[in-house]
Design goal:
GO molecular function: endonuclease activity; phosphatase activity
Pfam family, one: Jacalin
CATH class of the largest domain: Alpha Beta
Keywords: Endonuclease, Hydrolase, Nuclease
Number of domains: 2
Largest sheet: 5 strands, mixed
Protein name: Endonuclease/Exonuclease/phosphatase
CATH architecture of the largest domain: 4-Layer Sandwich
Helix content: 10-25%
InterPro entries: Endo/exonu/phosph_ase_sf, IPPc, Jacalin-like_lectin_dom, Jacalin-like_lectin_dom_sf
CATH topology of the largest domain: Deoxyribonuclease I, Chain A
Order of helices and strands: HEEEEEHEHHEEEEEEHEEEEEEEEEE
Number of strands: 22
CATH superfamily of the largest domain: Endonuclease/exonuclease/phosphatase
């Protein structure tokens, strides 16, 4: 949702979604951006635009910008299988409005800010970007949304309603819209990843579902956009659930591993640093590729694997330190039953531990998560043996 200001309490009073973002406030304090979801999410953030313009309207009146959340498309914890998970990163935005030169510049800056952010925080992940872009392809000087296409994102409206051809002629929608062929300023973009393939299956303006009781009057000055997708896990790389806290900087071995999937790879050594907590996690592949995440504190422990030995299990324990959840302990176990560990495996109510087993026929070949001076959050990347 965008422009969720004065009617937030009314909307939430009857809404049944199990996962809902808390309001950031009304005008002029809040961004008006909120998300209602059937899927669990983590690491929710609000980011204000670095540039705004009041040339056409009062775009600088509220802290407009975008939100970020990592959504678990499959349960993070399952009685059947707690070792694999499927995540996608969701960005909801409200870009600068207007058509004056200053507005176009601000909107261009807005989209570039999102791209810069996701290049850091969504590396290796599938991504959805949606919201009120205040932008149309038919505006030749309005190039903001074309930046997303150039960055490898797809627009399901262009794919499914425009036969893959980006329009240049204006085709404005009525409200409620009687066709899905016309163009609105509200957009959806998506990008698959080496972990997950996304396919757009439907794009429509669900205007008839958002009418008042008389069946004619609209509930919003924008046509509601509905985009449906299917997803499938990749055949060469998968991941475990994430454990730990949303602190530090995001890292992922997925982009590097995706370039190696046509080779026979395995972990040849596991390299851990730690003392009271986990300072770094690293590994070396049979190709010679080396990964390391975290810092250089603690003591280094290394386990060299045999030719027919694979990293198949990992145990993680998380706990609080200075108000932040961090990884306090990791134990890596191989297919031969050998193990290496670092940190402190505390046994008390304040410590929460999880054990992840690579699916049958798979192995751990990389990691992802968030780090700084220590490892704050961690997950594992699987590849076939």
């Amino acid at each position: 949702m965008q422009e969720d200001f004065n009617y937030h309490a009314d909307i939430y009073s009857t809404n049944k979604h199990p996962h809902r973002t808390p309001t950031s406030g009304g005008v002029p304090f809040g961004s008006g951006l909120n998300t209602l979801s059937n899927f669990e999410y983590l690491d929710f953030r609000r980011i204000k635009w670095a540039t705004c313009s009041d040339a056409s309207s009062a775009d600088c009146l509220t802290p407009k910008g975008f939100t970020f959340m990592r959504v678990a498309l499959s349960p993070q914890t399952s009685l059947q299988d707690n070792s694999t998970a499927v995540y996608a990163d969701f960005y909801n935005l409200h870009a600068d409005a207007g058509t004056e030169p200053q507005d176009n510049d601000a909107r261009q800056s807005n989209i570039n800010q999102v791209l810069s952010y996701l290049n850091t925080w969504s590396t290796g992940n599938p991504v959805f970007i949606f919201g009120d872009f205040n932008s149309r392809y038919s505006r030749t000087v309005d190039t903001a949304i074309r930046n997303l296409l150039a960055a490898g994102f797809s627009d399901p409206w262009v794919e499914l309603q425009r036969d893959g051809v980006v329009p240049t002629a204006e085709s404005l929608c009525s409200n409620p819209s009687t066709t899905d062929y016309c163009e609105t300023v509200d957009k959806v973009f998506y990008r698959s990843s080496p972990l997950l393939k996304l396919t757009a299956t439907e794009y429509t303006y669900a205007s008839k579902l958002f009418l008042q009781a008389d069946g004619k009057s609209v509930l919003s000055d924008h046509n509601p956009v509905q985009a449906n997708f299917t997803w499938s896990s990749a055949s060469q790389l998968r991941q475990s659930p994430l454990w730990g806290g949303p602190h530090g900087t995001w890292f992922s071995d997925v982009p590097s591993l995706s370039s190696l999937v046509n080779q026979k790879i395995k972990t040849s050594s596991i390299n851990l640093r730690g003392s009271a907590r986990v300072d770094s996690v690293g590994l070396t592949l049979s190709t010679g590729q080396t990964f390391k995440h975290g810092a250089n504190g603690g003591s280094l422990s290394t386990l060299t694997l045999g030719a027919d030995e694979f990293w198949t299990q990992a145990k993680l324990c998380q706990a609080q330190r200075s108000g932040r959840t961090r990884i306090f302990y990791i134990r890596a176990t191989t297919s031969s039953g050998r193990s290496i560990a670092t940190g402190v495996e505390q046994q008390n109510a304040a410590v929460d531990c999880r054990t992840y087993d690579a699916p049958a026929g798979w192995q751990i070949v990389g990691v992802l998560g968030q780090d700084g001076d220590e490892v704050d959050q961690l997950g594992f990347v699987y590849a076939p043996r």
